[in-house]
Input
Amino acid sequence: MPEKIIEDITGMLNEEKWTRATLNDYAIGNFQELDVIIENVIVKGAQDEVLELCEEHLEHTKNSIVALYIAGIISLSKQQVDDTHLMNLIGIFSDNHKWTAVEYLCRRILDFGENKDALRTLAETLEHLNQPEKMHEAWERLIKVDYAETDIVRRLAEKREESGDIEGAILYYRKAIHRYVNKNQFSHVRDIWQKLVEHGVDDYEFFFLIEKKVAKSMNIERAISLLEELYPAIKDREEWDTAIEVLKRILNYDGRNNWARQEIIQCYKSQFANHSQLDEYVRLSNLNQNWRNVLEAIADFEKHISFDAGNFVFHKTWGVGIIKGIKGDEITIDFAKKRDHSMSLKMAVGALQSLTNDHIWVLKSIHSKDKLKLKVKKDIPWALKTIIRSFDNVADMKKIKAELVPTILTASEWSTWSPEARKTLKTDPVFGNVPDKLDQFVVRDKPMSFEEKTFNQFKAEKNIFGKIQAVRDFLDHSDPDSEFFAEIFDYFTAFLKSGNVTVQVVASFLFVNHLASTYPFLNPGLDWGFKELWSDMDDPVEIFSQLDDAELRKEFLASVHRDVENWDSIYLTLFPIQLSKSMLDELLSAGFKDAVLSKLEEVVEHYREYREGLIWVARHAVDGSWLMDLGLKIEKIFINIIRLYHLTFNDIESKREVSLNRKLNRQVQNYLFKEGHLESFLVNGGEESAVRVFTLLEDIDDMDPVIKRDLKAVVLQTFPNIRFYGDKKTAETMSASSSRYFFTIQSSLTAKQKELKHIVDVEIPKNSKEIGAAIEMGDLSENAEYKAGKEKQESLQIQVGKIKDELERARLFSDDDREKGKVSFGTKITLDDLVDAKEEVYTILGPWESDPSSKVISYLSPFGGVFVGHSEGETLEFSINDRQYKFNIKSVEPLTLK
Output
């Protein structure tokens, strides 16, 4: 019984209190005996009572070993990130040099998860106990959870280096240099930079990353000094591209650095030693003249040096060509449509763009379309690398598409190819993102780690919720001990220091708390919680509505329930925003049935304000009986959701929040018609309910007439004697203004579908080829074929859009749509023309079948529409375009339609 446990522990505390037990009386066995007692407390569910007892005891006897130990272990077992009692106990034993006890206490804390303080103390204790291997193991664990620790990381690197594990040493040196940069400790940064240079410069992207961080967080002079130390190692390896890149970075920081200027000239001379015009191009670019801006000189030289016999170039009019030769100041080029074309070198530099042999434009010019298409489809990574590298190693999907469609892939082939390409760009480590530009892709010489790629994604995301999702992706495939994660985590904890409570502060608090529950060592140690945060919110409802993340909203609601006194009223206020059944379940379980019913009735009644809320209520009304058990009226739900259906049509027509209303309109249509809920209600809800509901449907002119017809037939079959209020006439049903839909026959529908297929499968691909051929001719600004192709492309796209819209609105006519004896779609009428004294015969069909020259007219036309709904023997007098007509309907005959 809990009472017996409380009694026993009280006795232990009093005995300790009165006998003044000394530290020397405690051994590991004593703590293990206390562990057995604590386990029994947990089994009996008496943690809260025992914790309270120990806390009271500590108020009077703050150094009670028993109370500190039991309270500390129980607090951790309750998943409270509170190690205060145990750390106090560790302090007592440490002060008295009882290292074996300290080790045991540290390890007990670590049984509940990694803890920076416990690991640091454990490492120090193991050093006192002369256990270096175990101390190093504690260090390894510590640096994974303490992002601020630097010196221990360096010592681990040096230990690996001394043991001959160079690869392991490099990993730790890299971790250490990141941390020293974050602490702005440049002397340590330089020491480790030199170590890493000694061990190899293969991954120069890493060195560039550190250099950029140093330039940003310290100053550019220090970044330059690091690059100057890196350069000799790369130069010794004769890796000229990389050596030139290092020197360019120095000159970007300091354009007056004469040493770097002279070195880059020497690198160019080594790289292009076999180039026939090397010295001449150095002279022409003024690269060795200090008065010339060095970056402009470099660009000028690199443009010149790309011109040599056998190299490819591009001209905006003549397309791709190959340099045939250079003699003096004259360059000769073979273009596909302009052989042996000569121009001065100066003109060539301004008019031509140099291309590498593997540039996508070169490949298009020398290989057939079919060959390239096969290669692109078969090897997506190759295609992506080729295109990205063709444009200074940066391209987005828009650029990639422009190079492939329509010259290599058709639009439909792109639709299949592009999802796989996007997947490759995201998962293949060869591809990376431009930092801060999520949609810009680069090709890496050294594969990019998942952590770095996700880190770049994190930086590129513009809002906090995108960043939070990037962190989740990061943690799905990596651990928070990554050096990138430290910077990520700092982004969120920085918000927690803000004075104003914004949605970013709330999101950061919730997210950091969630991370700390999974990784306790990430606990930021705040002295305030959600309760205090709530009291500082000016408008909690607005903040909640701005939390654009489902998981964060759940955390917010859980915190409200736990920490806010009037949580029930808050839940009811937030319900229309969150629309969560679990919220209502919590309220019902707590006895707030009347309040829940009142809120749901409010949502149904005020459907204009709570549009999505009404749809939610309607769905749950048919998915379970719990809403009906509350007392909600099902007929009221259906009546108002039909009113909402009508309202969305009106708002769409009035251009009010069109996207939202279209979405709601589709949801209501699916609920009422596709899923059959309205039909089920009409059949089972009673005749009076059916009349009331169906009368509302009759007023919705934009509703599909076929659906309306079918529903009416079902109701009439169920209630044969039913009479609807204000039954609409055939003329009203078929008037041009009453519906966006129109009737047609099967043969017309089939013909229109074939017409669309021909345009999409034949005309558009043919037009794409014509545009592609025109592009290859170059100079699009004065290319008549290209302009004509683009005009035709626009015309075809308009045609496709028009036909698709008509197909969406077309409805097959049924005999059930025809009212016996009256003029309608699918009738032949014989008329006496009382003005011209002659007989006329017309066939009434739809806009697709209309052929006035053959006396076939549309029921939607001004002339045909006059007769719709009228019967044999009636005389009609009307005017169209100032012409007077007067007809007597002699006969009305139904047609057999196919």
Q: What stands out?
A: The first strand starts at residue 312 and ends at 315. The chain has 44 helices and 14 strands. The first helix runs from residue 2 to 19. The mean pLDDT is 87.
